[in-house]
Amino acid sequence: MTYLPSGMPAPEPGPEDAPFWQACQDKTLKIRFCHDCTRYFHPPMPGCPRCGSMDLGWKEVSGNGTVFTYTIGHHAVHPALKGHGPYNVSVILLDDVDDVRLVSNVIDVPPEELSIGMPVTVCFEPAGNGMLLPRFRRRNPSSESTGSAR
Ligand SMILES: [Zn+2]
Fold this sequence. Notes:
By secondary structure, this protein is mainly beta. The chain has one domain: CATH 2.40.50.840. Helix content is 5%, strand content 35%. The strands form two sheets. The chain has a five-stranded antiparallel beta sheet with strand order 6-5-4-7-8. It has a three-stranded antiparallel beta sheet with strand order 2-1-3, with helices on one face. The site of zinc ion (ZN) has 8 residues, from loops.
C-alpha cells in the first residue's frame, strides 16, 4: 500500500533530472552540487542558479531533513485521489544540503500529528508505473539507541 494511489501520474524524467530519478530507483537521494561555489541546489538545472557555473556534479545525501511546511489536502485534485481521504503535501528541508527543499509527502504521520520542524528521513515508494518516488517518514532522533521503546 503506497501513500498515494497508484493511479497518480508518475514523474517524467527529462535530461536534467534523469540522474535524480535514476538514484531514486537505487533508493538513494542525489542532489545537484556546484563545484565552483560548492553549494547544492534543487531542482536540477543545466547551470548553477547561484553562480552560473556548468561545472556540476551529483552527491548522495543522507535523506534526513525536517518538515519545512505542509498542507493537508482534503479534495481530490486528481481523479485517482477520489475517496482517498486527507493526505499531506510537505516541503522537506534537507539536513546538511544548504537550503535544498523537496516537495513530497510524509507517509506515516496522521494529519493532526504533522508539524513544522518534525524530523523525517527519506524512503522510497513505487508509483503506478513502478518508478520509485522519494517520500518521507517520521525520524525518531533517539531511535538509533535501543529500538526497544515500543
Ligand atoms: Zn555555483
